[in-house]
Each structure stands twice: as structure tokens, then as C-alpha cells.
Amino acid sequence: MKFMKLGSKPDTFQADGKCIRYVISDLATDVTIIVGEVKFHLHKFPLMSKSNRLQKLVLKASEENSDEIDMVDFPGGPKAFEICAKFCYGMTVTLNAYNVVAARCAAEYLEMTEDVDRGNLIFKIEVFINSSILRSWKDSIIVLQTTKSLLPWSENLKIVGRCIDSIASKTSVDPANVTWSYTYNRKLSAPEIIVKGGMKYQEKIESVPKDWWVEDMCELEIFLYKRVMTAVKSKGRMDGAIIGEALKTYAVRWLPDSVDALISDVHSWRNKLLVETIVCLLPSDKGVSCSCSFLLKLLKVAILVGVDDSAREDLMNRISLKLDEASVKDLLIPARSPQTTIYDVGMVHSIVNQCMINEKCSQDLDLGKNDVGCTDFVLGHGSLLSVGKVIDGYLEEIARDPNLSLASFIDLARSIPEFARPVHDGLYKAIDMYLKEHLSLTKAERKELCSLMDVKKLTMDASMHAAQNDRLPLRVVVQVLFFEQVRASAGVQSLNNNPRDASRSTTNTEEEWEKTAAEDCNSIKKQMNQTKIKEGEFPKNGKFLKKDSRNSKSGMQLLPSRSRRIFDKLWVVGKGHGENKSSETSGSSQSPTSMVPGDTKSAASSAKHRRHSIS
User: Fold this and answer.
1) If DSSP codes are grouped into helix, strand and coil, which group holds residue 283?
2) How far apart are CA 514 and CA 487, in angstroms?
3) Which stretches does UniProt call biased (Polar residues) (predicted)?
4) Count of H helices and E strands in the chain?
5) Distance (Å) of CA 534 to CA 53, 539, 576
6) How far apart are CA 479 and CA 488, in angstroms?
7) Helices marked H in 332-373 — which ranges?
8) pLDDT tens, 528-559?
9) Do residues 295 and 311 touch, judged by C-beta distance below 8 A?
10) Is residue 116 part of a domain?
């Protein structure tokens, strides 16, 4: 810390209790100056030789036959006046970052200018501030902190502005040129390892990180912090990511951890102001500078402390730009009264909708520039795939809420476009969880819920689970079993047609596989339409003739035995009832004749079997 000593005479000021100060001298004191609750018994001549204001006040007191002068609203109080008084006596006094602002304001109040005496206190303090204080990083911050209690004097004397400019300028200095001390308690990034000549050398860690100034700035009060950060941003030389890190560090430093402390009457106003200030200071670079996790946590706090709508909407817009980086845990925003759900699903839905609008605008720009199709857009913007994945995880989590309406669940699920959800395993888990926690759903509601899912986009594991899930409508199970049979048949046919490429066929892309499966499905449908079942081939016991039964069983052997039996029985029931089959088993009309085993039991016996869930 920088300091400056003034005067050379020994300090002869003495105290008599807490309210009396006097000077030890052979001459009796002839004036009493009152500053606050303290009385200073001093001599007129030393004071008048340095202070123009004291000259006027002493003259006025003499005219009134009084030896007391009351200094009203003296900046800095008794301590600041004592510094000025000692300077007038030529006594030794030490100025530093903690008292220099008070001394400067007091000297201004007393009019200790060069007109009264050359080398007066104002001149000396200004030299000290400009040559030492403002050149020191930590001293500039300390001095800025002390200016708050001395407003408006410190503002009018431009001490606040000079300190802010000094601090903002130093943050923009190349880290390689930083030679002053600073506080840095966070972990440095791991050094890179350089391999040279067969030996490993640890690269020297950069001595000064780019965000070296962040922690020291956290000591500033919120009003001063806002002014400094505004100055830092206005210079235009600071990376937005570092500004984002600074705001995050400040929020962690000052926002309490507990919800009770956040919303307490004592600190609620300060916390609200803090959040609104941080939101105001966020870089205007479309949210790139701040992590989505930090923005979501800030949004949760903003809701708790009751920030205004503009700040909340600003946060939501920034989050929508980085939604692909979000985690399910961060999206679990607690609902507020009068909402009855556990989490604020509506707010997340709004964020997702805004995210889709942003992507649509980006798509339109890309189409205008490159004249490419939607497929190229999706392949070039994988962020939507991440959004789809995290929203499916979020749906699974909120599905546990018994108060979550079916409409809210379906609306949020449908907000994700189809091309952003190439695999429906996550959506299936969410639907299954909702069915598990909401047992009172009607048949129509279960059907509507399951219509969100495309069974063709389920992986093998998810299909096997769904085929034995007794919570799913029967029609969905039939569709799952049918498509698994199509998939199995396509795989067997591919192996039979080209056994040399068997190993290579297992590495086909999802798009190629779906194309093959679709073609095979169409082929099977054509075969089914051409097949005519004669009356003689369908005996009373409900069994098909065992003609060609060996070929018809070959594909079904690839399905689990229980699922195969269920599918066999559903298929027979569908054929037995003809046009009168129910909507629950209407999916079986798509089943190929090659999938009908000859030894399938009758429809009556099929009713004895029940599906079960392995979840």
C-alpha cells in the first residue's frame, strides 16, 4: 500500500476522553472548533495560515465575542479534521488509501488552496493521488470504496470518476504487462505437456491469467461495481467471456446460498437490486459469454426475489440461445403461487418456444445465404439435437408430478420438432413415467399421450421394454411388435442376400436402416393384400394350416418368446374378427402373413394372457 508522510514536527495532539482533543504547547489555546461531538482546543494562527475558510470563521467569531466555531456537516468527521489541523501545525501525518479521500474532502471544505499558502494540503494530496494511488491497482479499489461515505464531496472532486477510470484501464492491460499484486484464489488451468526429444517438459503456466482482476472487484459495493463494469465494457477491449466470469464470481460472492436468506425482509431489496444489476451488465453477445447453467441459476434467484418482468424476460431470451448447454437439473425451476405444480413448466415451455424461433431465424438466414435445404440445416446445427435430448429428460422428471396436466406435458413434448428427436427412447421413458404416476388417465388420454411416440424410432432395448409394458395401450404394443418383426425380417433378408457384407451391414447409419425397413414393410403389405384365406384353410379351432409354417416361423424366432406369443394371439384375433376388430388391435391389420405361425392358439385362449412391465 502506498503512503505519504507530511510535516516533520512531533505529534503533540492529546485526547481527554472521547470528546476532547488539545495540543500540548506553552501557549494557551485561543479557539475551540467543534466537529461532530468532538471539541478541538487549538490556536488561531496556525489554522488561519493554511485555511481560507477558518480565516473567515475566526473573524466572524471574534465579531460575536466567541471563541467557539461549529463546523457543520464536516466531510470525514473529527478524524479528517485532525489530519488537516496537524498539517497546519506542521506535525507529522501519514496519508494512505484509507484516509486520503477524507483528508482531500476536508481540505476542500477548509479551502486549503495554493492561494492561501504555496504547497498547501490540497496540492500535496492531489500529487499523492495522481502519482501513487491511481497507479496502484489495490489502492485504487480501496480509495473507491471509501468514497461512498463521502458523497457528494468525493463525486464533485472527481475522485470517484478518476478511480473508476484507473481501475477500468488496468483491467484492459495485457496480462503479460501486469506487475502489481492482485487476488486470485481460483484454480489455474492445467499446464500443457510438451514432448520434445522423447522427454516430457511441463509448459510454464501463464503467470497472470486473463481474469486476474475479477476477485478484487468483488469487494466493491453494488453501485460502484456497476459503474466500474460499465466503464470496463465501454472501453470495448474486454472479452465478453471474462465479463461473464466476473459477473458470475460477483453473484457467488454476494448472493446468499439459502432461500430463506434470499427472500428475508432484511436483504430482499439488496438481493433484488443485485440480480437486476447483474442482468443489466450481462454482455450483449447473444449469451455466448455466460454459461447456460449460470443464467438458469440466476433466473431461479430472480424469480425468488421478485425482479421486474423485463429482467426476467432478458434472462429467458439469453437462456433460449444456449438451451443446448442446459442440464435437466438446471431446468427444474420451482413453481410459485398460484401454480400447483412442483416446477414451472410454463416458463420452460416459453424458453423452448423462443429457442425454436431463434433456430428458425437462423435457418432462414442460412437458407438465404447458402440456398440449402432443411436437412443440411439440421446436420449443420446439432444444437437442436441436444435441446431435444435435454427436454426429453426434463419431461421424464416433471412426469413424476401428480399435479402436472396432460395438456402441459403434451404441449411441451410437441414443442420439439421431429428432426430434433431422431431417437424416441427418452420420450418413451417420459411417457412411461407419466403413465406410471397418473393411473387415472382414460383410454383416450393414454392413446393421445402415446401418439407422441413413434415406435419406429425406438432402439431395440426400448422396443423390448415397450413390448412387455402393461401401461401402454394394446395398440401401441402391437405396433412395437410389428415393427420389431419388420426390422428382424429386414436384417435376415439382408444377411441371406449378401452374407459377405454381414459385418458391414451392422454399421449402417440409422437413415439407411429406416429406409430398408420401410421398403420391407411396404413389400410385406403388398404380400398381405394379395393373400387370400380360404374357408377350408381356417378350421373351427382357429388355427392356420401348418403349410409353410417353417418359413413363417423363421422371422419370429428373433423376437422374445413371450412377446412373440402375444403378437401371434393378437394377429389371430385380428383375422378372426375381420372387419369387427376393435381400434385397440387395428394395428395388427398391417401384419404380414409370413409372420403368422401355424400353431398359434385361438382368440379365446389369448384373453388369458396378460402383459407385464419390467420397469
Assistant:
1) coil
2) 9
3) 494-508
4) 29, 9
5) 122, 10, 13
6) 14
7) 345-370
8) 444 333 333 333 333 333 334 334 344 344 44
9) no
10) yes
Q: Is 207 helix (H, G, I), strand (E, B) or coil?
A: coil
- Interacting residues of 36 by C-beta distance below 8 A, sequence separation 6+: 74, 77, 78
- Total of domains in the chain: 2
Give me the CATH number covering residue 68: 3.30.710.10
Q: For residue 78, give the amino acid letter.
A: P
Q: What whole-number distance in Å separates Cα of residue 86 and Cα of residue 7?
A: 8
Q: Is residue 449 part of a domain?
A: yes
Last residue of a domain, which of 133, 154, 183?
A: 133
Q: Identify the pLDDT of residue 1.
A: 79
Rounded Cα gap, residues 390 and 412, in angstroms: 12
3-state secondary structure 532-590: CCCHHHCCCCCCCCCCCHHHHHHHHCCCCHHHHHHHHHHHHHHHHHHHHCCHHHHHHHH
Peptide bond into 152 cis (omega under 30): yes
Strand ranges inside 390-548, DSSP E: none
CA–CA dist 478, 317 (Å, integer): 43
Q: Which residue has the cell 422396443?
A: 463
Query: pLDDT tens-digit profile of 3-49?
Result: 899 989 998 888 888 889 889 988 888 899 999 999 999 999 999 99
Spatial contact of 449 and 435, defined as CB atoms under 8 Å apart: yes
Q: Alpha helix (H) ranges present in 147-267?
A: 153-156, 159-171, 214-217, 222-234, 240-254, 259-263
Pairing label, strands 38-42, 20-23? parallel
Q: Are 327 and 296 in contact, with CB atoms under 8 Å apart?
A: no
Structural domain including 12 reads 3-133
Closest CA to 245 of 214, 281, 271: 214
Last residue of a domain, one of 472, 490, 508: 490
Give the span between the Cα atoms of 250 and 157, in whole angstroms.
Answer: 28
Q: Is residue 609 part of a domain?
A: no
Which cell numbers hold the place of 23? 495540543
Written as nine digits, the cell of 136 is 496502484
Residue 281, in any domain of the structure: no
Cα Rg of the chain (Å, integer): 40
Band (pLDDT 50/70/90 cuts) for residue 76 is very high
Q: Which cell numbers hold the place of 535? A: 374357408
Q: Cα(15)–Cα(40) distance, rounded to whole angstroms? A: 9
Distance separating the N- and C-terminal Cα atoms of the chain: 67
Which cell is 10 given?
512531533
